[in-house]
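Bench log, entry 3. Co-assembly request; chain sequences pasted below exactly as received.
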Amino acid sequence: MTTMQDTQALVGRGNREGAALFRDWFAELDTTAKSGGDAAYVFVMGSINEILKTFDLPVVFPEINSLQTAVRRVAHEYLEEAEDYGYSPDICGYVKADVGTQLRGGEHPMGQIPKPTITVLTNACNTYIKWAEIWERMHGTPTFTIDIPGTRQEGLITLPGQRDFDADRKYVEVQLRELITMCEEITGTKFDMDRFKEVLGYANTMSRSWNRILELNAASPSLFNALTDGTIYLGVANGLRGTKEGAEYFERLVEEMEYKAANGIGQTIEEEYRLLFVGVPCYPIFRRFNELFTDWGGTFVNSTYLWFASGGTNRGFEYDLDNPIESLAEGVLISVRDAMDSMFHQNAVLADMANDFDIDGIIYHPIKSCRTVSTGLADGRKHMSEQLGIPSLFIESDMMDRRVVSEAQMKNRIDAFFEGLASRRQQELTEPKVR
Ligand code: SF4
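Structure output for the full assembly:
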């Protein structure tokens, strides 16, 4: 039997605890920066936290630092500093906010950000490679780039046991072994296999839980907002990956979601329209952006963002602790490839999501400063409308730059979209069924 006390303790717990862990993580970075300690700069699509945490290296995600400047409404200051320094208004806003942070000696609304001792990146976004070169120039930071073979053609995904997959897995494994050697040299610490397995175990719990949480949101009403709540969960999924705290957090989040599902407790609004979100959120007006949909009873039940910005951990891949390095290579290949697929080959993924989550519409949000995510969205939308008849909305703005965010224009388009959904629903109710 459930009680009012259970509900009060459980519902919203993930948001409260996630925000606290997020603050703790930044407090640790602040302490590291002030003491001049080591830190690894990484990216959300293939952070390789599993190796870095084995060496107890604090991890910095510059993408997350940058989006935090937008959420806290100071991104324009950082962007302008980077543009004054010489960076083009056209390039990725995350890069420019980070350049602004570096120029300020790490000063950031969440605390001071330490300088990088090592940068680890994958080829999941071409910008990562040029971004790391900035730190090489600014700080002389050694960079380790891991080349992850992507899907060659939509629908043709290689699987473990197939020759091509095994060759790709081996290719990733060789690179991971080189990274371990580099970390040993930089930290002066021998790689500890037992510690590594412990980290992998925590990462397994997080992946399994994240996969379950996403699956549970197919409930009606949906349990959490993929845009707003989801961003809090993503912060922990990235920053605390491979840690005991991260694993416990996600186990508790599953408990909360299962409780909500069992008791029919949905989001904070009455769910009228279930939506999918494609792209990166509009962080400069994050709360308002979400309200433009929730005011109509629109709820975001899933998004491609929750997939690629978790580095593909949505797949729920679990490492084999008896073959840790080989299994890490397999997991990195599967997860990062999946993250890339959810940006570059997303039609099939969206069609599945639309079906599994009983979707009323898809919101495409291409953004000026991220071509990686935005290129091809117009074609994708055309395909989804023509082939599957799913209503969709295409609105453009930015994830960082408030100069290209027009709230009034977006509101007009969003209102018209919901009016269309309402009349479509009305028509479905009144039209006689064809037998
Ligand atoms: S994926 Fe987009 S936002 Fe992220 S680093 Fe690449 S260009 Fe920037």
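Strands lie at 40-41, 59-60, 118-122, 143-146, 273-279, 298-303, 361-365, 392-394. The CA atoms of residues 42 and 120 lie 5 Å apart.
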